[in-house]
């Protein structure tokens, strides 16, 4: 199976091309450019480096969130457009599962967290590859209370870890282990491995972003409606 993998769910933009279990090319970028500026040039470069064309892909794997609202939309919309043009299916990949897949053989509870702003995280928990908790948007303290009874050692990784590291250490003490910097972004190849395993194909029309809470624009609209006002 040949896959083009796209991830824009976090601060790092990632693209990879895989054939079965082999990574043919993998590109990541974290710079001052936006994902919308980075993504298509990186996609073209990844395909060229792999010696493949979009027409030779069997599917496009897209990380559908949770993560940045704008980032997720960019990646999902791009995957939908490319899949439609190439006439191939899409495979959705959960961002927190892909982060967990990058954690290696940690024996305790793996806690991938993405920064959701306002003291919240998008978080989940895994042990030995098995999910212990579904993806949720929670206040950090509530998330830590939820996972604290799941084991005695906890590995934290993801872009939310550096933001909340000191508070996590304050609450969990020596039970908390923190991943090195290179594990705090999602490897697109890790998402590709999950996509290969799941085989959860869908057509481009039904590929959807995963939002664990409504975007600010939607919340503001509801607030204005409740106040009897219209949003221009």
SSE diagram, text form:
Layout: E1 2-7, E2 13-19, E3 22-29, H1 35-50, E4 59-63, H2 69-86, E5 90-93, H3 95-101, E6 109-115, E7 120-127, E8 130-139, H4 140-147, E9 154-157, H5 160-172, E10 176-178, H6 188-198, H7 216-226
Parallel strand pairs: 1-4, 4-5, 6-9, 9-10
Antiparallel strand pairs: 1-2, 2-3, 6-7, 7-8
Helix pairs in contact: 1-2, 3-6
What does this structure look like?
- By secondary structure, the protein is an alpha/beta fold.
- The protein has 2 domains: 2-94 and 186-218, Nucleotidyltransferase, domain 5; 103-183, ATPase, nucleotide binding domain (Nucleotidyltransferase, domain 5).
- 36% of the residues lie in helices and 27% in strands.
- It has helices spanning 35-50, 69-86, 95-101, 140-147, 160-172, 188-198, 216-226; strands at 2-7, 13-19, 22-29, 59-63, 90-93, 109-115, 120-127, 130-139, 154-157, 176-178.
- The longest helix has 18 residues, at 69-86.
- The protein is elongated.
- The model is unreliable at 216-232 (pLDDT under 50).
């Amino acid at each position: 199976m040949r896959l083009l993998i796209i991830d824009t769910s976090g601060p790092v933009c990632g693209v990879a091309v895989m054939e079965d279990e082999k990574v043919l090319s993998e590109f990541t970028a974290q710079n001052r450019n936006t994902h919308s500026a980075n993504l298509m040039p990186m996609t073209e470069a990844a395909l060229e480096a792999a010696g493949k064309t979009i027409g030779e892909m069997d599917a496009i794997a897209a990380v559908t969130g949770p993560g940045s609202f704008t980032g997720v939309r960019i990646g999902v919309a791009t995957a939908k457009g490319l899949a439609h043009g190439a006439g191939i299916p899409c495979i959705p990949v959960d961002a927190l599962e892909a982060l967990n897949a990058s954690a290696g053989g940690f024996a305790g509870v793996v806690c991938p967290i993405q920064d959701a702003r306002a003291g919240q995280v998008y978080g989940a928990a895994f042990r030995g590859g098995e999910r212990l908790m579904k993806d949720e948007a929670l206040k950090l303290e509530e998330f830590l209370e939820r996972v604290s009874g799941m084991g005695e050692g906890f590995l934290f990784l993801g872009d939310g870890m550096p933001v909340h590291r000191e508070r996590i250490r304050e609450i969990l003490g020596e039970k908390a282990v923190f991943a090195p910097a290179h594990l705090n972004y999602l490897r697109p190849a890790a998402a590709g491995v999950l996509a290969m395993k799941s085989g959860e194909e869908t057509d481009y029309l039904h590929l959807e972003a995963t939002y664990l809470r409504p975007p600010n624009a939607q919340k503001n609209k509801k607030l204005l409606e409740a106040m009897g006002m219209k949003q221009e």
